[in-house]
Design brief:
The protein is mostly helical. Helix content is about 65%, strand content about 0%.
Protein backbone atom coordinates (compact mmCIF):
# COMPACT_ATOMS: atom_id res chain seq x y z
CA UNK A 1 0.00 0.00 0.00
CA UNK A 2 2.89 2.32 0.80
CA UNK A 3 4.35 1.79 -2.68
CA UNK A 4 1.02 2.68 -4.31
CA UNK A 5 0.80 5.91 -2.30
CA UNK A 6 4.41 6.83 -3.20
CA UNK A 7 3.78 6.12 -6.89
CA UNK A 8 0.62 8.25 -6.82
CA UNK A 9 2.55 11.06 -5.15
CA UNK A 10 5.30 10.97 -7.79
CA UNK A 11 2.83 10.87 -10.68
CA UNK A 12 0.55 13.63 -9.33
CA UNK A 13 3.25 16.03 -8.04
CA UNK A 14 3.80 18.11 -11.23
CA UNK A 15 0.10 18.46 -12.11
CA UNK A 16 -0.78 21.39 -9.79
CA UNK A 17 1.82 23.67 -11.39
CA UNK A 18 0.50 22.76 -14.85
CA UNK A 19 -3.10 23.48 -13.83
CA UNK A 20 -2.17 26.80 -12.19
CA UNK A 21 -0.22 27.90 -15.28
CA UNK A 22 -3.09 26.87 -17.59
CA UNK A 23 -5.48 28.92 -15.44
CA UNK A 24 -3.13 31.94 -15.57
CA UNK A 25 -2.94 31.64 -19.37
CA UNK A 26 -6.74 31.48 -19.50
CA UNK A 27 -7.12 34.58 -17.32
CA UNK A 28 -4.43 36.43 -19.27
CA UNK A 29 -6.18 35.56 -22.52
CA UNK A 30 -9.56 36.65 -21.19
CA UNK A 31 -8.84 40.11 -19.78
CA UNK A 32 -8.72 43.22 -21.91
CA UNK A 33 -5.59 45.28 -21.68
CA UNK A 34 -5.91 49.05 -21.49
CA UNK A 35 -5.29 50.88 -24.76
CA UNK A 36 -4.04 54.37 -25.31
CA UNK A 37 -0.98 56.48 -25.99
CA UNK A 38 2.12 54.94 -24.47
CA UNK A 39 0.32 51.73 -23.51
CA UNK A 40 0.91 49.74 -26.70
CA UNK A 41 3.42 46.89 -26.83
CA UNK A 42 6.37 47.17 -29.20
CA UNK A 43 5.77 45.42 -32.52
CA UNK A 44 6.09 41.66 -32.09
CA UNK A 45 6.28 41.73 -28.27
CA UNK A 46 2.86 40.11 -27.93
CA UNK A 47 3.97 37.21 -30.15
CA UNK A 48 7.00 36.65 -27.92
CA UNK A 49 4.73 36.70 -24.86
CA UNK A 50 2.40 34.18 -26.52
CA UNK A 51 5.30 31.92 -27.44
CA UNK A 52 6.81 32.02 -23.96
CA UNK A 53 3.48 31.38 -22.24
CA UNK A 54 2.82 28.29 -24.36
CA UNK A 55 6.43 27.10 -24.13
CA UNK A 56 6.03 27.02 -20.35
CA UNK A 57 2.59 25.41 -20.65
CA UNK A 58 3.82 22.62 -22.94
CA UNK A 59 6.98 22.14 -20.88
CA UNK A 60 4.92 21.68 -17.73
CA UNK A 61 2.57 19.33 -19.58
CA UNK A 62 5.48 17.20 -20.82
CA UNK A 63 6.91 17.16 -17.30
CA UNK A 64 3.55 16.13 -15.84
CA UNK A 65 3.03 13.31 -18.33
CA UNK A 66 6.62 12.04 -18.30
CA UNK A 67 5.95 9.75 -15.37
CA UNK A 68 3.04 7.99 -17.03
CA UNK A 69 5.26 5.77 -19.20
CA UNK A 70 5.94 5.89 -22.95
CA UNK A 71 7.46 9.32 -22.47
CA UNK A 72 7.68 10.38 -26.13
CA UNK A 73 4.08 9.41 -26.90
CA UNK A 74 2.75 11.34 -23.92
CA UNK A 75 5.05 14.27 -24.73
CA UNK A 76 3.62 14.54 -28.24
CA UNK A 77 0.10 14.34 -26.79
CA UNK A 78 0.99 17.08 -24.26
CA UNK A 79 2.38 19.33 -27.01
CA UNK A 80 -0.72 18.71 -29.12
CA UNK A 81 -2.97 19.51 -26.16
CA UNK A 82 -1.13 22.80 -25.58
CA UNK A 83 -1.57 23.71 -29.27
CA UNK A 84 -5.29 22.90 -29.14
CA UNK A 85 -5.65 24.87 -25.88
CA UNK A 86 -4.04 27.88 -27.57
CA UNK A 87 -6.32 27.62 -30.59
CA UNK A 88 -9.40 27.31 -28.38
CA UNK A 89 -8.39 30.33 -26.31
CA UNK A 90 -7.82 32.38 -29.47
CA UNK A 91 -11.37 31.52 -30.55
CA UNK A 92 -12.65 32.23 -27.03
CA UNK A 93 -11.35 35.79 -27.38
CA UNK A 94 -13.81 36.40 -30.23
CA UNK A 95 -16.63 36.12 -27.72
CA UNK A 96 -15.12 38.70 -25.38
CA UNK A 97 -15.42 42.43 -25.73
CA UNK A 98 -12.14 44.23 -26.30
CA UNK A 99 -10.24 41.12 -27.47
CA UNK A 100 -9.51 39.97 -30.99
CA UNK A 101 -8.56 36.66 -32.55
CA UNK A 102 -5.34 36.69 -34.56
CA UNK A 103 -3.86 33.90 -36.63
CA UNK A 104 -0.39 35.22 -35.73
CA UNK A 105 -1.14 34.70 -32.04
CA UNK A 106 -2.28 31.13 -32.67
CA UNK A 107 0.91 30.45 -34.64
CA UNK A 108 3.03 31.95 -31.85
CA UNK A 109 1.18 29.75 -29.35
CA UNK A 110 1.86 26.64 -31.45
CA UNK A 111 5.53 27.46 -32.04
CA UNK A 112 6.02 28.13 -28.34
CA UNK A 113 4.29 24.88 -27.42
CA UNK A 114 6.45 22.85 -29.80
CA UNK A 115 9.70 24.47 -28.64
CA UNK A 116 8.85 24.26 -24.94
CA UNK A 117 7.61 20.70 -25.22
CA UNK A 118 10.67 19.49 -27.12
CA UNK A 119 13.03 21.22 -24.71
CA UNK A 120 11.24 19.57 -21.80
CA UNK A 121 11.31 16.20 -23.54
CA UNK A 122 14.97 16.18 -24.52
CA UNK A 123 16.60 18.32 -21.82
CA UNK A 124 14.65 17.56 -18.67
CA UNK A 125 14.70 13.97 -17.44
CA UNK A 126 12.71 12.54 -14.53
CA UNK A 127 14.67 12.35 -11.27
CA UNK A 128 14.55 8.56 -11.17
CA UNK A 129 16.12 8.41 -14.64
CA UNK A 130 18.90 10.87 -13.68
CA UNK A 131 19.58 8.97 -10.47
CA UNK A 132 19.60 5.59 -12.18
CA UNK A 133 21.90 6.81 -14.97
CA UNK A 134 24.36 8.50 -12.62
CA UNK A 135 24.67 5.47 -10.32
CA UNK A 136 25.30 2.87 -12.99
CA UNK A 137 28.94 2.14 -13.82
CA UNK A 138 29.80 2.14 -17.53
CA UNK A 139 29.35 -1.20 -19.28
CA UNK A 140 32.73 -2.29 -20.66
CA UNK A 141 31.53 -5.50 -22.31
CA UNK A 142 33.60 -8.63 -22.67
CA UNK A 143 36.68 -7.04 -24.25
CA UNK A 144 36.91 -4.19 -21.73
CA UNK A 145 35.81 -1.60 -24.29
CA UNK A 146 32.86 0.71 -23.58
CA UNK A 147 29.66 -0.41 -25.26
CA UNK A 148 27.88 1.93 -27.68
CA UNK A 149 24.21 1.61 -28.47
Amino acid sequence: MKTLARTASIVLRPWPSLLVWAALVFVGSSISLPRGPGLDFPVGADKIAHGLAYAVLAGLAVRATSRLGRRRVFALAAIGAAIVYGALLENWQRLLGGRTTELGDAIANAVGAVVGGLVALYVWRPRRQRTANSMEPPDHGEAGCPQTD
